[in-house]
Design brief:
By secondary structure, the chain is an alpha/beta fold. It has three domains: about 5-225, Spore Coat Polysaccharide Biosynthesis Protein SpsA, Chain A (Alpha-Beta Complex), CATH 3.90.550; about 230-265, no CATH class; about 265-370, NAD(P)-binding Rossmann-like Domain (Rossmann fold, 3-Layer(aba) Sandwich). It has helices at about 20-30, 50-60, 80-85, 110-120, 155-160, 185-195, 220-225, 225-245, 250-260, 265-270, 275-280, 295-305, 335-340, 350-355, and strands spanning about 5-15, 35-40, 65-70, 90-95, 100-105, 125-130, 140-145, 150, 170-175, 200-210, 285-290, 310-315, 345, 365.
Length: about 375
């Protein structure tokens, strides 16, 4: 084992040459009074990412440790999480930051370290995070389970699913991994393990960022591919069943409730078809769908099937303005919507909350209430 330190930051990366410097610089900028190390695991990148990691290791030999694979482990279905912990981690705590994510608060590591020191009954600390466009220039959504500091219960974490918390915002005790209860190292598994003993400490301060649809990201591999999404759902259902067995049914009712979530957004909308149709047809036009992520696209598909027309669709990214999408809906700029809309159908809770805060003279409808899971 190497030197003794308080926190080990694990940064996994593969072919992320455009992002890795941002990730490492954000980690190295942390203001702390304790020793920490950064273990950068490169899964046999082919785009030059490995060379950059080696450069950082040379510049920061006391902090950065490169672990570079000769063959890609992910494509072989191999898990390297346990190996990294057993062979390379020296810290009392472990923090996570993937190579395409980054931190936006120089006090993040200190605050989460202090939170866990002050809450010995808890194994994990999470923080408020957000998602941004691939280029990092525009915020897309919030990953914020509550609006105040506190303790997240095991039940809340189970019901929240894998996207309940931002992975780059997690810090946990290394000892938490001594008994994985038969669970894998997936984000959702770690979150449940982190809340299992005494709940999870939550700091309501925006400190971590997840890039949406970056090259090689989970969103690109899974959320854009229905086949991969089904595989992911099957994995998560098995995780929940394993947790149920290994906790002697302690959270059985909550797990049963969460298992209901593994339905498509269209299925969830179908369950609320009567009230949705009535709401849409009793709303004034011009009427626009706000949000072109998975929920927004599902809402478009659902409306198309029911022959419910909208006057356009928009998204905070504001791309492809003036064109028509696959449902023949015109893509308009968000500013146009704010000036002309009588009704906005917000596809996500984040969009709804932001629009309501703006105190607009427009009817805003929260459509995530009709497709809460996923």
């Amino acid at each position: 084992m190497g030197r003794k330190c308080e926190v080990s930051v694990i940064c996994n990366t593969y072919n992320q040459i455009d992002y890795i410097c941002k990730a490492l610089d954000s980690i190295l900028s942390q203001k702390v009074s304790f020793e920490y190390e950064v273990i950068v695991h490169d899964d046999a990148s082919t785009d030059g990412t490995t060379d950059i990691i080696r450069e950082y290791e040379t510049r920061y030999p006391d902090i950065i440790k490169a672990v570079c694979e000769e063959e890609n482990q992910y494509s072989q279905g191999k898990s390297f999480f346990r190996t990294l912990i057993d062979n390379h981690v020296n810290g009392k705590y472990i923090a996570l930051c993937e190579g395409d994510d980054y931190w936006i608060d120089n006090d993040k590591l200190r605050l989460q370290y202090e939170a866990l020191e002050n809450h010995p009954e808890c194994d994990m600390c999470a923080c408020w995070g957000c998602t941004v466009t691939e280029d990092g220039k525009q915020e897309v959504s919030q990953i914020r389970p509550r609006t105040e500091d506190g303790i997240l219960s095991m039940e809340e974490v189970i019901l929240g699913g894998g996207q309940y918390l931002v992975t780059a915002g997690l810090v946990f005790r290394r000892s938490m991994c001594d008994d994985m209860l038969g669970l894998s190292a997936l984000d959702y598994s770690l979150q449940m393990l982190g809340a299992l003993r005494g709940g999870m400490v939550y700091i309501d301060r925006k400190m971590a960022v997840y890039r949406r649809y970056s090259k090689g990201s989970w969103t690109n591999r899974v959320l854009k591919d229905d086949k991969n999404l089904k595989i992911q759902w099957d994995i998560e259902k098995r995780l929940l069943q394993t947790l149920d067995d290994n906790t002697e049914k302690k959270y059985h009712d909550t797990i049963i409730e969460r298992l209901k979530a593994y339905r498509s957004f269209e299925e969830q909308l179908e369950e609320n078809k009567t009230v949705i149709v009535e709401t849409a047809r009793n709303s004034e036009h011009p009427m626009f769908i706000w949000g072109l992520g998975r929920r927004g696209k599902s809402l478009e598909r659902f409306f198309d099937k029911l022959n419910i027309s909208v006057d356009g669709v928009c998204d905070a990214i504001n791309e492809n303005i003036g064109t028509s999408d696959e449902y023949d809906n015109r893509i308009v700029h968000t500013e146009y919507v704010l000036k002309n809309a009588k009704t906005i159908l917000a596809s996500t809770r984040w969009a709804y909350d932001d629009l309501k805060k703006a105190d607009l003279n427009i009817k805003i409808i929260d459509f995530q209430q009709y497709m809460p899971f996923g």
